[in-house]
Amino acid sequence: MTTSTKMLCCGEDLGMVPKCVGPVMNELKILSLRIQRMPSDLNIEFMHPNDYPYLSVCTPSVHDTSTLRGWWEEDRATTRRFYNQILGLGGEPPLFCNEDITYRVLKQHLDCRSMWAIFPIQVNTNRSTLDSSKQDIFGLNFKYFEKIDPREQRINEPSNPEHYWRYRMHVTLEQLG
């Protein structure tokens, strides 16, 4: 694939991946995927974007995970460790993932060594509404999430066969302007 196109290739190297995959991807110049809360090293709980390699794509969440806001509310103890260790903030984290937290997480991704930081927003052309596999970026502005339950923003839940790609953004493109 890498010899038949000039496009960059990105491999989904998440989860249980044999140790040989990383070196082969590196040799073939295939970008890896980096998600803070899904470290490839089983000895750490979170990855820090500062540790990502250049040949990588970073993102705070993907279609098979909860959004940043949803994850923030899932486990208070985990959130506290992330808040203290990765964001470098002391004390207790806010109960909800507010605009400041979202900004800090996204900024870490934008400032890291990864070749790409991706926060895609897809347009549903049938209804001029947004399908978003990264609602995280909307967490930067309270008006886009104040009345939305973060659990409703999850795209896919692989463990639940009834939860399928049905999410539709509640804001039209015109309303974003």
Question: Mind explaining what this structure looks like?
Answer:
The chain has helices spanning 21-27, 68-74, 76-85, 99-111, 173-176, and strands spanning 32-34, 56-58, 116-117, 122-124, 129-131. The chain is an alpha/beta fold. A three-stranded parallel β-sheet has the order 1-2-3. The N and C termini lie far apart (39 Å). The model is unreliable at 122-134 (pLDDT under 50).
List the main descriptive attributes of the protein structure presented here:
single chain, about 180 residues, alpha/beta, three-stranded parallel beta sheet, two-stranded antiparallel ribbon, 5 strands, about 25% helix, globular
How are the elements arranged and paired?
Blueprint lengths: L20 H7 L4 E3 L21 E3 L9 H7 L1 H10 L13 H13 L4 E2 L4 E3 L4 E3 L41 H4 L1
Parallel strand pairs: 1-2, 2-3
Antiparallel strand pairs: 4-5
Low-confidence stretches: 122-134
Count of extended strands: 5
Radius of gyration: 17 Å
The total count of helices amounts to 5
Which percent band covers the strand fraction?
5-15%
N-end to C-end Cα span: 39 Å
Order of helices and strands: HEEHHHEEEH
Care to give the gist of this entry?
The chain has 177 residues and is of the alpha/beta class. Helices cover 23% and strands 8% of the residues. A hairpin with a 4-residue loop joins strand 4 (122-124) and strand 5.
